[in-house]
Amino acid sequence: MSEGSRKIRVVVVDDSALVRSLIKAMIDAQPDMTCIGAATDPYMAREMIRELDPDVITLDVEMPRMDGLDFLEKLMRLRPMPVVMVSTLTERGAETTLRALELGAVDFVAKPRLGVAQGLQEMAIEITDKVRVAAKARIARRPVARAAPPSNAPRVAGAAGVGLSAGERAALVKPVPVTYSRVSTEKIVAIGSSTGGTEALREVLGGLPADCPAVLVTQHMPPGFTKSFADRLNGLCRMHVKEAEPGERVLPGHVYIAPGGRHLSVKRSGANYVVEIDDGPPVNRHKPSVDVLFRSVAEHVGRNAVGVMLTGMGRDGADGMRVMRDAGAYNFAQDEATCVVYGMPMEAVKLGAADHVLPLSSIARKVLDLAAARA
After folding, report:
1. CB 311 within 8 Å of CB 194
2. Confidence band of 66 (pLDDT split at 50, 70, 90)
3. What is the H or E stretch that residue 243 is in?
């Protein structure tokens, strides 16, 4: 730590004394951070935040006296600050965690249901890395995000925001004035994202029409969360969004999300593209890795691809995006002002991999303009 810099000040909020002590110990063991308080519930946390003014808080989802989501919603409305959620790896935990990200949490860690002590200790690097990222994140007071409708809501082909009222659809999905009917099935859009990416993806994918070229997405996410994430997006988007499955054909009008903990890539099968799912080792410390997706797109799709790099920490995907550009693809990177963390896009720009740097709100339309121009 450089001279004159100060440590990241963290408050831990969890009703489990064991979890509080473990997280506090791993934070205090880092040379660049310190745990300045540990609260058993949101009411105690509220007082600590007022008195201690932390840089980051870690927040349990399920707590007594006030639910973690209720506290997070109030916090982000009244006193926005970086929050890392601590959730359980269950289907219900996944839904709750995704809602927390909608409300403004920077990131999350999934604590194990069994063997909590050993499991958390093994996650010390992940937890402290996410606290560091959160401390640098851009946090702004935001309107409360709407919850996604149930994933089993009836769908109407091409409808924007299925199951929502006209007003809700207008708020969630920006209209795209031009319809790109029958855009070539050869076109593929490849998107990489990490910290802050769940909400960035919701905006980009929500701006794409039902007949958009196929979209392949690698979002850094652990196993157990991507199915719920895809289902939530599917209820908000005009395209059909699903967790990718090995061997399935890549079709226009569909979005394929990399399964948590496995790599997503694409290959040719005759005249078609098909999905490949790989359980190989992490790449750039990530699994799924954006580099794996982008390199496969460069090899098998070439100039018919559009690449998009969204918010995220680190440099995963930068090299792969450069390979895509060398193969003739056209690439976009999200700009610094609209990123939660300007890491992955910055690295792509520094490497000369991005043709344009755009604010988040402009990416969907530019992707469509380019797809139509190259059809």
Report:
1. yes
2. confident
3. strand 240-243
Active site residue 355: no
Helices vs strands, H then E, count in the chain: 13, 14
Task: Pick the catalytic residue from 14, 107, 220, 296.
Answer: 220
Confidence (pTM): 0.84
* Entry field: residues in the chain: 375
Query: Among this protein's residues, is 316 annotated catalytic?
Result: yes
Catalytic residue among 194, 228, 289, 296: 194
In the residue annotation, 194 being an active-site residue is answered as: yes
Alpha helices in the chain (DSSP H): 17-28, 42-52, 68-78, 91-103, 116-122, 124-136, 166-172, 197-206, 226-234, 290-300, 318-326, 344-350, 360-373
Q: Active-site residue among 60, 231, 316, 335?
A: 316
Q: Where are the alpha helices (DSSP H) in 210-312?
A: 226-234, 290-300
The string of pLDDT tens digits covering residues 192-221 is 999 999 999 999 999 999 999 999 999 999
Residue 155 to residue 329: CA distance in whole angstroms: 33
Average pLDDT, stretch 16-36?
Answer: 95
Mean pLDDT of the residues in the chain: 86
